[in-house]
Each structure stands twice: as structure tokens, then as C-alpha cells.
Amino acid sequence: MLPLFGIALTVFVGCVLYSLLLSFTDSKLLPSYVFVEFKQYARLFISSRWTTSLQNLIIFGALYIVGCLVLGTLLAIALDQKVRGENWFRTLFLYPHALSYVVTGLAWQWLLNPAFGIQALVRDTGWESFTFDWLVNSETVIFAIIIAALWQGSGFIMALMLASLRSVDPEIWRATRIDGVPAWRTYWSVVLPSLAPMITFCIVLLGVSVVKSYDLVVAMTNGGPGIASELPAKFVVDHLFERNNIGLAMAGAGMLLVSVLCAAAPLWVLAAIRKRGANQ
């Protein structure tokens, strides 16, 4: 295992530390080792493009995580009723997750394009005043991206939650039926609280996915119109490869690292609490 450990330590930890080092320099096209302390981070937070990307990240992250959890859990509960054709429905709901974000983005770009998407289709039926231009409207474009992300991500959460629901002790259901407790109340008060570790795990996975979001935005809008759908990952890549500003890009990457650590913190806390409980 030592060679593998050495490679992982060099590639992952080493590159992360080197990136953080460059974020404190004035590197432009090529790395430079003239240190400027926190000036790159100061430039980062006075940049309107960065602040817009952070605002979009908050909106995208909150609605995406909550939406995936709600939709995925509802789909899992529906399939948990032993419906006919369950295997077919499970495959249908999980299929979007098998697609790449680029394919998803291009498909939804076509669907939401006012010229030949849903808006054009409805207008061709005779409703000429119908408007669904979220993709080209700077006020609503981030919500168009959220719709595409929910379509792809909720099926994966459904699969995880369904597996957890199937592991619930059948005696719980027998006891609630004897007591006359409605099924919805059993799910809300008994089953879902018992699935707290899985829900936390899903939140961490979705949170990390939000921080890394890049290809879906590029495929759908390329950050437009203007910078209305800009996200931090795109900000970093653009400044690294197009604007030739390595120092500022690495400062943005450093803030993304902090975001990933914050997203993973609940899982670490939960693991520590469970370990402490097991030792006691």
C-alpha cells in the first residue's frame, strides 16, 4: 500500500498545498514566488464576478440540496409501497444520474431555449402569449440550472433512501398498524428520524457536488447571460486558463476548499458522535 499512499499524498495533498501557496503570490501566466500575503483574497472579494458566483452558489446549493432530498425521499417512499413495475420505475428515475452533466446541460438547454424549446412548442399550439424564457433571463437563469440539476440528482438520492427504507425493522410497521398510526405519521415521526445518518450522508454528497458544479453551467449557459449564472468553480477555471491569473484563481480554489470542508464537517461530527456512543 505504500506506493499508492505515496502517490495519493503527492498528487492530492501536495497539489492542494501548492495551490494554497500560489494563492499568496502574484502569479499570472506562470507561477511566481513573490508573496503578496492576502492581497489576492482581498481582490477576490471585491470582484463583482466572485460575489455574484457566491450568491448563485448559495441559491443553487440551498434549492438543489433541499429539492433533491425532498424529491428523492418522496420517490423512495412511493416505491417502498411495493408498487407494480417497481423495477421499471426505479430504473427510470435513476437513469438521469447515469448521464454526464454535459449531456444533461445540453438537453435542458434545448428544452428551455425560447426559440425552439418548451416556449416555442406551447406557442405553436396556439397560446402565443406563453413565456418561459428562464434560460435567457438574468433573474431566473439560475433556477433553470437548478431544474436540470434536480432532474439528474434526485434519482440518486431516491436509490439511497429506498435502500435505507428497506432496512427498517418490519416490527416497527407491525406495531404502528396495531396502534392505528397513519402511514404518513410513521414515516415522519419514526422512520425518517431513524434514517438521520443516511440523510446526513446525502447532504454531504450533495453539498460537495454543489461546490464542484462546473460542467452543467458551462453546457447550459456558459455563465450567461453576462455573469448571471456564474459559479465559483467556473470563476476559478476561467481565471486559470483564460485570464492567465493563477494567483487569483488559486485564491478562489482555496475558498472552494474551505467550502468542501464545511460541507463534509457534518459527516465527521456524526461519525465522532457515533464512535463516542459506541465506546460508551
Automatic annotation (TrEMBL):
One of its GO terms (cellular component) is plasma membrane. It is a multi-pass membrane protein. The keyword Acetylation does not apply. Residues 54-267 form the ABC transmembrane type-1 domain. Keywords: Cell membrane, Membrane, Transmembrane, Transmembrane helix, Transport. It comes from the Bacteria. It is found in: Cell membrane. PROSITE patterns: ABC_TM1. The keyword Protein transport does not apply. GO terms for biological process: transmembrane transport. It holds the Pfam family BPD_transp_1. Its main location: membrane. The chain crosses the membrane at residues 57-79, 91-111, 141-165, 186-211, 246-273. Belongs to the binding-protein-dependent transport system permease family. This is Sugar ABC transporter permease. It comes from Simiduia agarivorans (strain DSM 21679 / JCM 13881 / BCRC 17597 / SA1). The lineage of its organism: Bacteria, Pseudomonadati, Pseudomonadota, Gammaproteobacteria, Cellvibrionales.
